[in-house]
Design brief:
The structure holds two protein chains of two kinds.
Chain A lengths: L2 H18 L4 E5 L3 H9 L22 E5 L7 H10 L5 E5 L1 H5 L20 E3 L6 H16 L6
Helix pairs in contact in A: 1-5, 2-5
Chain B lengths: L2 H12 L3 E5 L6 E4 L4 H10 L7 E9 L12 E9 L4 E9 L5 E3 L8 H12 L2 E3 L36
Parallel strand pairs in B: 2-5, 6-7
Antiparallel strand pairs in B: 1-2, 3-4, 4-5
Classes of the chains: A alpha/beta, B alpha/beta.
Chain lengths: 152, 165
């Protein structure tokens, strides 16, 4: 190990630290999970203390896509386009069982898990998940963001 | 008007085209032959005493697995009419055979029928002749099949569609 590698790993750690504590999420809310998302984001279970307090409602300005709520087949191309419009680095959180596996909507109209159309980083199960579960998922996402080589 | 009077008025006017009338649970219902349907609906709306100015609902029923109708027509299209000035209701049912699923559209009479008929087309596959824009309402265009029919398997998977660029 030379001195150059030392500096690049420290730089990776620093950038990872900065990225994980400044999450600009895009809350793609379609259904009931949105209520729990709002509860998590508001004052009681505050998500701002994790640095994730500013939702961006434009994919160009966001880095984490929170897919919150049931995604129907009709909505799936819209979701894919939003994901494609986000710039790197980007992560996806599947919030609620409808996005993880289709939930209890095992029918003709619901996408059986958004990982059929997007790469997902963190799955938060629950119908809807408790805010504590959401914060646990958010912390796991932060670990994922911070670790490893950062692309810049 | 009393429910029985409504049924009597329709039976007197249309005679043989009225296949059956009943009032199960107080819901006055008339079963109409498809040939006379456009006339019956027009008469219901335009007659001064009937005055059914509001189409409350337009839906369909699939009797494929219904025990009492194994040999009868497979589908029924159901219209629920309400009269605001006279405060009375009527249900009209039209039996349809499986190989001839066409019905005249109610859109010229009540514009609200537009989306109801699109939903029936989407879910059952019943065409409405004279509808200005008969396409799927709740499902995407590339969807194959009509899901609310009794023979649509509940766990059939549809192909995913992508962005349209």
């Amino acid at each position: 190990m030379g001195l150059g590698e030392f500096f690049t790993t420290k730089l990776d750690e620093a950038i990872g630290w900065a990225r994980k504590y400044s999450i600009f999420q895009y809350p793609f809310v379609t259904a009931c999970c949105g209520m729990e998302y709002m509860a998590t984001a508001c004052s009681h279970y505050d998500v701002d203390r994790f640095g994730a307090g500013l939702p961006r409602f434009s994919p160009r300005q966001a880095d984490v896509l929170f897919v919150v709520g049931t995604i129907s087949h009709k909505m799936a191309p819209v979701l894919r386009r939003i994901y494609d419009q986000m710039t790197e680095p980007k992560w996806v959180v599947a919030f609620g069982v409808c996005t993880c596996t289709g939930g209890f909507y095992d029918n003709y109209a619901t996408v059986q898990g958004i990982d059929t159309i997007l790469p997902v980083d963190v799955y938060i199960p629950g119908c809807p998940p408790r805010p504590e579960s959401v914060l646990d998922g958010l912390m796991k996402l932060q670990e994922k963001i911070a670790v490893g080589r950062q692309r810049y | 008007m009393d429910g029985a009077d409504i049924l009597a008025r329709l039976a007197a006017r249309f005679g043989a085209a009225i296949l059956e009338t009943h009032a199960h649970h107080g819901d006055h219902t008339v079963v109409v032959d498809r040939v006379a349907l456009a006339d019956v609906l027009g008469f219901c709306r335009d007659d001064e005493d009937l005055a059914f100015d509001m189409l409350m609902d337009l839906t369909a029923v699939d009797y494929l697995t219904f025990p009492a109708r194994e040999n009868g027509p497979r589908f029924d299209v159901v219209y629920h009419l309400y009269s605001v000035p006279a405060n009375h209701r009527l249900r009209i049912k039209v039996p349809l055979e499986e190989d001839d699923l066409v019905v005249p559209s109610a859109v010229p009479l009540w514009p609200i029928a537009n989306w109801f008929e699109r939903e029936v087309w989407d879910m059952f596959g019943i065409r409405f002749e004279g509808h200005p824009d008969l396409r799927r309402l709740l499902l995407y265009e590339e969807f194959v099949g009509h899901p609310l029919r009794k023979d649509y398997p509940v766990n059939r998977r549809q192909p995913l569609i992508g962005p349209t660029n």
